[in-house]
Design brief:
Layout lengths: L2 H6 L2 E4 L6 E5 L21 E4 L7 H4 L10 H14 L5 E6 L1 H12 L4 E7 L17 H13 L1 H13 L5 H11 L4 H12 L4 H4 L6 E8 L5 H10 L3 E9 L3 H4 L1 H21 L1
Parallel strand pairs: 2-3, 2-4, 4-5, 5-6, 6-7
Antiparallel strand pairs: 1-3
Helix pairs in contact: 3-4, 5-6, 5-8, 6-7
Amino acid sequence: MNELVKRHNIQILGKLDAKKTLIFSHGFGSQQSTWELILPAFEQRYRIILFDLIGSTFLGMDEFDIQHYCSFKEYAEDLIKICSFLEIKKASFIAHSASCMIGTLVAIKNPNFFKELIFIGASPRYLDDTNYVGGFTEKEVIEMLNAMTKNYYDWINHYTVKAIDDPKQPFLSQEFAQSLLKLSPDIALIVFKMIISSDYRKEVSQLKLPTLIIQPQDDMFVPLEVGFYLNKMIENSKFQILPTKGHFPHLTHPFMIAHTISRYLNRSSNKAKRI
């Protein structure tokens, strides 16, 4: 098995001879399995590529270098290697949370890899700033990091319930907690601190590819102001607000997410045909 394939647990599914390719990239605390509820909507029409970010699974723990993975740029380099190895051209990149900024960096550096980007719960910066609402004050971030450091397992129980935010489906919070437990507490703290402290506002303003921004109307980690900001800063973007709660709409409302993505892909395809 190729070392890159093994390192990222790369999977190629769906219609293998399809002209169109979809690349799905998960967020913090998840693995590629986070997409399994929406994949059936695309398997008959598209070639689908799944992979795991380094450090997100037991398999990737040995590959995680604390000194190396200090920003999204290093994760973007991994994605560039994956796309180069698979000879990706004009794929649709579908990302959740932190992976949205990883995809942004790749799209800026290698625009031919992607035809379009689809963001779910994206944020270029989580901290509030002058004339910018990110969702968190510096004090709140410090409190979260202290809670993680003090008792990682208690933090998981608290974090997962808020992140999923769906009392009618408590099993989703439990499943997300199990996913987080696959992370080493030390790695989880380092990665979460990097994400919550990141600032890629400059980079998103440089993004030129068509981008769909999917935003739940009530997400404690990404307020609506962030979605409006991205829509304003990304030149060729569309903003879709969903009547949902929580940071994981692809888990809580998979059919809605699949429909939203499919509709965008179909419109994009029809537009290309007219041109």
